[in-house]
Amino acid sequence: MSDFQQTVSYTWPQGFPGAPASANPIRTAIAPEGGFIAREGGLTIARFVWRHEDGVSLSHIGTTTPAGFLYRSQQGLTTQYLQSATMTLPQGFMASLAEGGDFWAVASTAATAGQAVYASTGDGSLQTAPAGNTPQGTVATGWTVSRGGSAGEPIIISGPMHPMTA
Questions:
Q1: What confidence tens digit (pLDDT) does each residue in 45-81 have?
Q2: What are the residues whose beta carbons fall under 8 Å from the beta carbon of 53, sequence distance 6 or more?
Q3: For residue 2, what pLDDT is reported?
């Protein structure tokens, strides 16, 4: 591994996945005593997660509305010598979840402002589509696209600032 710079960017990125996208409030999930922890296999920051039966462990696999969005909150951990960055939260580490607020994210589909945000039931990754047009293998999150973009490019998603009610 080289210590020398590998790339040069001519402009700053608009935002980084998982980072807050505005100065608006962030609504976090109330964690149980001892906090939430990453389940077997760990977690990837900037994806949706589900809470499991024990009420403590989180994973990217689920079939109901996700518990929240795993945002960047100094949660990643570089575990390899001279590793420059990571978006991984190892198994057993504590996690913070956003239930609302504005965040940078990346979707595998092109996104347009106003579209609904859907989470893959297999890995928590994001897709966007008009509300009510749930893509195969995803569930509705209750979040919407605030600033759209091309597939694979940073977008802004916004979650509700009030608790979801049934």
A1: 999 999 999 999 999 999 999 999 999 886 656 667 7
A2: none
A3: 52
Q: Which residue has the tokens 């989470």?
A: 119
* 94 Cβ contact partners less than 8 Å away, ≥ 6 residues apart: 35, 36, 37, 38, 75
What is the distance between the alpha carbons of residues 70 and 84, in angstroms, rounded to a whole number? Answer: 21
The C-alpha atoms of residue 43 and residue 104 are separated, in whole angstroms, by 17
Rounded CA separation 66/120 (Å): 10
What is the C-alpha to C-alpha distance for residues 120 and 151, in angstroms, rounded to an integer?
A: 15
**Average per-residue pLDDT in the chain?**
89
